[in-house]
Amino acid sequence: MSVYDYTVRGRKGEEVKLSTYKGNVLLIVNTATQCGFTPEYTELEKLYEAYRAKGFEILDFPCNQFDGQAPESIEEIHEICTLKFGTQFPQFGKVDVNGEGAIPLYKYLKDKKGFAGFDMSHKIAPILDGILRKANPEYEKSSEIKWNFTKFLIDRNGEVVSRFEPSYDLGKVAKAIEKLL
Fold first, then answer.
1. Edge to edge, what strands does the sheet with 56-62 contain?
2. Where along the chain is the active site annotated (predicted)?
3. Gap between the Cα atoms of 56 and 15, Å rounded
């Protein structure tokens, strides 16, 4: 199996086969509009603009599972992303990435790459670690998505290559993308 075997719900409710993206390098991201990491949309758009012509796509999956930080409708989220952050990459319908309601794609992604650890030099990482550790002292042993803006890097064959937690430096993500292009 690969990510190409999955079908997801598009922003307008339509079914989208991920095989549509076959042959591209993908960065699959769960996002939110009211998160400390939300400004990352600007950096993600820069990555998209830099590598799109070389066969790179970012697939944006808004998710409201982390402290209710994506409460808007999908159309409101899309408007925020395009007007405030200038995003042009594909955005899909809101999803659950954890729990019983997690979409099959995210179950697959988490099965392939578990929690990669936070970069504790990031200013938000110690805060997240504290919140998560209070709820579950052994949170890092689970492959569940820990927060918004967790990224999965997929190669041109649809295989999961890397998982980057939200505190991971996007410059390092860019280098990983370049290796696959």
1. 56-62, 25-31, 151-154, 160-164
2. 35
3. 21
Cα angle 89-91-93, degrees, rounded to a multiple of 5: 175
Dihedral over Cα of 72, 75, 77, 83: its sign: negative
Residue 114: both structure tokens together? 């578990």
Q: What does DSSP say about strands 56-62 and 160-164: parallel, antiparallel, or unpaired?
A: unpaired
Residue 101's pLDDT is 97
Q: Is the pTM of this model over 0.85?
A: yes
Q: Do 25 and 180 form a contact (C-beta atoms < 8 A)? A: yes
Are the beta carbons of 92 and 16 closer than 8 angstroms?
A: yes
CA proximity to 86, closest of 53, 56, 43: 43
Q: Give Cβ neighbours of residue 169 (< 8 Å, ≥ 6 apart).
A: 119, 122
Short-list 62, 56, 55, CA closest to 85: 62
Structure tokens at 118: 């936070």
Cβ neighbours for 73, distance < 8 A, ≥ 6 positions apart: none
Superfamily of domain 3-180: Glutaredoxin (3.40.30.10)
The 3-state DSSP class for residue 166 equals coil
**If you search the block for the tokens 């860019």, which residue do you land on?**
174
Give the residue numbers marked as catalytic: 35
The full set of domain ranges for the chain reads 3-180
